[in-house]
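Hey, I was hoping to borrow your eyes for a little while. I've been staring at a protein lately and its backbone has me curious. You're getting the sequence in one-letter code plus the fold written as tokens. Would you mind checking whether the tokens look sensible for this chain? Here's the protein in full, and shout if anything looks odd to you:
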Amino acid sequence: MLASDDENKPEITDNIVGITKWEKYRSERNGADQERKDFERFAHTILKVQDKVRRRSGALRIDRAQHAKALLAIDNAVLKVSEDLPDDLSVGHWQKGAELPVVLRLSNASGQHQPDSDRDLRGAALRVDTGAGVQDLLMTNFPVPHARDAEQFIAFASAMAGNRIVGVIKLVFAVGPREAIRMLRNVSGGTKRPVHSLTEESFWSRGAALWGDAGPVRYFIRPANSAAVKEGNTEVPDNPNYLRNEIAQLVSEGDASWEFCVQRFVNEEITPVEDAASEWPEDRSAPIVVAVLTVPEQDVTTLEAQDKAVQIDGLAFNPWNTRPEFRPLGNLNRARKAVYAASAAHRARKRFYEPVPLRNRIVTAVLERAFGLLNRWRPWYRLPHLLALLNLSLLRHQLRRENLIDREPVEPNPQATQPGNPTPEEAWDRRSFDGTQNDLGVPDMGKVKAVFGRNLPPDPRPDDINTPNPVEVSKQLLYRKSFIPATSLNVIAAAWIQFQVHDWVQHSRRKFGEDDIQVPMPEGETWKNTPKGKKETVMRISGDVPIGTSDDQKLTFENTVSHWWDGSEIYGSSLQKAARLRDGTGPMLRLEEGYLPENNLGMEVTGFNESWWLGLSALHTLFAREHNSVCDALRREYSTWSDERVYQTARLVISALIAKIHTAEWTPAILATPEIDVALNANWSGPGGAFTRMGLWLQEAHALRGIPETLPDHHNARYCLTEDFVTVYRLHPLLPDDYHIYDSATGGFREKLEFNDIQGIRTDEVMRRVGLSDVLYSMGNSHPGAITLHNYPRSLQHFTRTSPDLKTEIIDLSVVDLVRERSRGIPRYNKFRQGLHKSPIRRWEDITANSEDVRLLKDIYGSFDNVDTMVGLFAETPPPGFGFSDTAFRIFILMATRRLQSDRFLTVDFRPEIYSPLGIAWVQENTMTSIILRHFPEFASVLPTGQSAFAPWRPRQT
């Protein structure tokens, strides 16, 4: 009996933005954010399945995870819409009498190119030309999928990709015995039935889809002439390509056709949307013929037809390639958007998967527990050398698994899309300026305006932005009474980290004077917020611009530079800015007598010149000169290259060289321990030493090669830099307040300058007057400040800054640092360290052994749960040889390798074909020392021997 009219009339929409009631039900039940995390996990699993199938079949390349072998692939099929189509189904391009061009691909369902005679399901993929985009319709020749939802689908695909007996056991554990039996019966029922001809087969959609205001439908195609279907014959030809040959022969003799039908939604009990494995009974939801699909008579064996078939075989079909009013519904379909996209990207070498050896998974699981217990009473840096290295590797593994939180906004429900444009040809071998197309599978990942992620969940305390008063915190705990030097480093090291941070992170700030954060001054004190302003009882700080107004969006912020390690501080983050920095249309960066040009405000012109001072000017100038040296070398070696190719290759070389210097030179200089030296050099070059290599072979085999010889890996979270990363790189104590300038030729003293004399618009005049040679020599022979309490630069605590909109403000940068940390929801210090797998603070002395600092911390904060993270990081006693705390270091060991590992130009595309042989050699053979010597050979006798150029230089004898 058919359903009544009332039963067949569902409610269509639930709100004004077009989210259906079925989608809202899903959001309230499961949550879009949790589904997004699940789907990313599923996407990673499908890459694993593809790799398993490739290795099992012996194929040389990655193919589709399913439906690998095409049986028919043509682009001239037609859907003729019925003249009798009900009015409410006449939606969009499905109009009565319309003829819709179709690309059709019929296939075997297996991920292997196996014989047609093997037991298998068959699939039909239709790409319908709507006149305003496409609609992909995907179907299989069994009425329902074996999986109720995405979790079951991925569990089954993963289990069955390897050994079938082992796979059945895995499936039982994954979904339970009852569901495993049902799924296996479903698949067996669909595959054991012989298929004699594709024209005799019906193909059903995988779950439901929206059909405009008519609500959900399931669709299928069935033979147009059902009387032609053969019955009773259980034998199939013993020919590996009999189905392919049969359909080719059939369409060479005449047209082939199927009816395209839909079934209407009745209710969740009879026609469930979320449970894809429940069949919609035809006696309760009668099929309605919407159109007839026709394959016209043709010869599909010609060379032209075969070329066309190859092109179609390369298409990435996805049910979400459609118009919004026809978007898929149900959990299984929602997952297909991410999973199919990942699979297609993997097949096109735009996304990568590298299997983790079984021994690594077992050893890691066992040793993580063992070292977790050991670290309760003995931290990693107090262990013997080899155990310490293994401990660090295990800690990084745990941090990757638990401390990468993607904050990119989630669409409330997956939205319909269209097939992406082909990757621009130039994107394959050059970096974009705005960070797009670095990950070719997710082109927007890490671009300018991508949001900051998190390593720890945000801990908003909006009522505590001024508690305790950050001005008092700064005065009592940060103010530099006397300079505390870091004697193992030079000031070039201090300038270097700011040089890097400007490439990595920059929040978008509100204009000063518009909705400022107001910090009350202590009783009896005032502050002038602008040079000509009046004294006020509040300090005004320009706030960050959040991405929205919801509670979650208020704690999510965009990066105004790209997240990639791409040298944007030199080259700029947009094509327009980069063009202005070049010397005409040639490959060189514009220099004036070897120095950066000035703009009309007196500021040096480079990729990023905010918070500008002499140390930054020195490094920007040095690397602009180095870029031009690379260009000269490339021109000599490759005389036929265009200027654009020379420029883009030089960009790649300089960006990679900077990443290498930071990884293998700067970091071991500031974290001066044997374990860090080995670990960081191993990041770039692979480890040395038989015992170290054996340990990594057991625990993390990928680390044996050095990151540039591995494949990109985002570790199950979109690549981005994080708010917590920004927090631990607040290293302003490195900057001295006073700078002594020496003559680099004689070593003689020239003059003493204060920080305010060498920053902002004063910088260029000092640079040109003193000269880059004397600036580098002077900074090489001076120490930066130690990263500790009571060592914040005085010059930055009353600092006149000109914002990009040319407004001038007076700030106490130490207060700004504290306020920004609190307003961004960074957990306070005790929760921060616990989130990074350190033991909680149980007494004040757990933070620092300095009794006077303990007293001050108690007086100011009252509870150690209130201590600001920046203050705690400065107070914490660092491991021996470290320039900063072990807590901050944990963010570093997670994010340092991530910045390399995620970037294809530092992994799979770090190769001579992209960089040129000369470019690869330039990166591998050069260091900070060799760069300085190339431009200043007279420094050969003063640069440190056996150490990096960030160690103190030898002064010339006067």
